[in-house]
Design goal:
This protein has 19 helices and 20 strands. By secondary structure, the chain is of the alpha/beta class. Strand 19 and strand 20 form a beta hairpin. The longest helix is centred in the middle third of the chain and has 18 residues.
């Protein structure tokens, strides 16, 4: 029996052909993973199934949910089906949730639209669904707002909304991309349990082949809007007939050729007993102030030429520590010293010029109205005598070439580039004033496996040519393992384990480190011979 059958689906938006003769099926209780790079048509296939397409879109073929062709349905008919017969979990839960409505109201909304339940009955159903996804109401009351939850908890709310009426088909579009490994493992286990429990079909959109190998019954590999290969998971990994599938597999297990460490004994960054507290809201009018300790007595040192990784779950204090190192937040006690000078709010520009950062979302850190030349020269204002004229143009060209772009790209706007190219521009901006230390804050977590491999190779090349020192912050343990010499493991504001990267990963001493390593998805050994 087939739940969803897509037959020769073609999709065009204006003159652009997005999908070309896409065909595959999903049975009840089956997990089918649709994988490929950005722009391959994965998400458009999902949106076409939900019929959430722009007005200018033209579709051909058939999308059959049971015996019903979704392409032949009117918008009111589709509205009656969305949420009831088919649900969708989006990649970014914060944009999928209404920030001014409670989580209870948002889960209840789907129930009340599609059923005749009273508010009390809908509230009970919402409470049951939130408990089912791991948010029991004794700890997570229905009155909470999205901003009061972590990323993994928000994703659970989105899943609760999607399964509130137990739809026959669930579509999950990159549901774990931005989550840490333990939360990702929990969300994936939850999705698998829901498929078994409700007998629903699951279309899983992802570019992570390690996740696919552990999750899916069958795999559909897409490239440029076409299916290049599909089949049962294990058989496909063992054979990998199409070269694109093999290329994806190789990129997923890519090992960076990191140059030998040219470490100088002189420290470049010293963190000593750093403590950072946040004030909690008062529960009563005259109640004493309560504090949350985000960073608790942390100490470590980075030397010239050293590449250090920092790993830990969301909420462990990584971002708070990063802001303190950048001088954006004060410490309650302890000290941070960079290049022999103490770091803190109001530090002099000369100190900040030696310390640059590459953020997770490059697009969010750029002004879209500015051209690339202006964007990557922003750090020049930190210099007492910045280059001008031909010297400035030469510095821009050198920075762009160093990250694999063309000097002519300086005259373009940021929207003209792909995600991987934007990340290269972010690295060029950090590199242009030749800083002594760069902080990579989840710099590759949102990238495709092939683009991620290119950026990691770029970091290794820059480390070789510029003798880079960096602090690499990531929840992706496979990436940290390949681009760092030493790793720090952080939990609940404390460093619970640190040491040489290979030693920590091969022989973890702390139970939390063991949990992180065990939770990380691993590529199957099958197929490596074919690759």
């Amino acid at each position: 029996m087939t739940l969803l059958r897509i037959e020769d689906l073609s999709l065009s938006i204006g003159p652009h052909k997005i999908l070309k003769n896409v065909s595959f099926s999903i049975a009840p209780g089956e997990i089918v993973a649709v994988t490929g790079e950005s722009g391959s048509g994965k998400s458009m296939t999902a949106l076409a199934t939900m019929q959430l397409l722009p007005e200018s879109a033209e579709t051909k073929g058939a999308i059959l949910l049971g015996d019903l062709d979704l392409l032949a349905q009117t918008e009111p008919q589709l509205c009656a089906m969305r949420g009831k017969d088919m649900g969708m979990v989006f990649q970014e839960p914060m944009t999928a949730l209404n920030p001014v409505k409670t989580i209870g109201d948002q889960v209840m909304e789907t129930i009340q639209i599609h059923t005749t339940m009273t508010r009390a009955q809908a509230e009970e159903q919402a409470r049951e669904m939130l408990t089912r996804v791991g948010l029991p109401t004794d700890r997570f009351p229905l009155s909470r707002y999205p901003h009061e939850l972590s990323g993994g908890q928000r994703q659970r709310v989105v899943i609760a909304m999607a399964i509130a009426l137990r739809p026959r088909l669930l579509i999950a579009d990159e549901p774990t991309t931005a989550l840490d490994v333990t939360t990702q493992a929990q969300i994936l286990d939850l999705l698998k349990e829901l498929v078994v429990e409700f007998g629903m079909g699951l279309m899983m959109i992802t570019h992570d082949l390690a996740v696919v190998s552990e999750m899916a019954d069958r795999i559909v590999v897409m490239r440029h809007g076409e299916i290049v290969e599909q089949g049962k998971t294990r058989a496909l990994f063992e054979e990998m007939k199409h070269p694109y599938t093999r290329a994806l597999f190789e990129a997923s297990g890519h090992q960076v050729n990191l140059p030998e460490r040219a470490e100088v004994p002189e420290p470049i960054l010293e963190v000593r007993n750093a403590v950072r507290d946040y004030v909690l809201p008062r529960t009563q009018l005259f109640a004493p102030r309560q504090y949350h300790r985000a960073v608790n007595e942390i100490s470590f040192t980075i030397h010239h030429g050293e590449r250090v990784g920092l790993v830990g779950e969301s909420g462990c204090g990584k971002s708070t520590l990063t802001r303190a190192i950048l001088g954006l937040e004060p410490l309650q006690s302890g000290s941070i010293t960079a290049f022999g000078q103490e770091v803190g709010p109001g530090q002099n520009p000369a100190l900040r010029s030696g310390l640059q950062v590459v953020f997770q979302d490059p697009y969010g850190s750029f002004n879209p109205r500015h051209k690339v030349a202006r964007i990557i020269t922003e750090p020049f204002h930190l210099m007492p005598d910045p280059p001008t004229g031909e010297a400035r143009d030469r510095a821009i060209a050198e920075a762009l070439v160093a990250v694999g772009l063309q000097p002519s790209d300086a005259g373009k706007y940021i929207h003209e580039f792909s995600g991987g190219q934007r990340q290269r521009i972010a690295i060029a901006r950090a590199l242009i004033i030749r800083p002594e230390l760069i902080i990579f804050d989840e710099a590759v977590s949102a990238l495709d496996v092939s683009i991620r491999a290119q950026i990691l190779d770029l970091i290794a090349d820059l480390s070789r040519s510029h003798n880079l020192s960096y602090l690499f912050i990531s929840h992706d343990l496979s990436v940290v393992r390949t681009v760092t010499d030493r790793v720090l493991v952080m939990k609940a504001g404390e460093i619970v384990e640190q040491g040489e990267t290979q030693e920590v990963f091969s022989n973890p001493q702390h139970s939390y480190t063991q949990t992180l390593i065990n939770a990380a998805p691993v590529l199957p050994i099958v197929g490596q011979g074919a690759a």
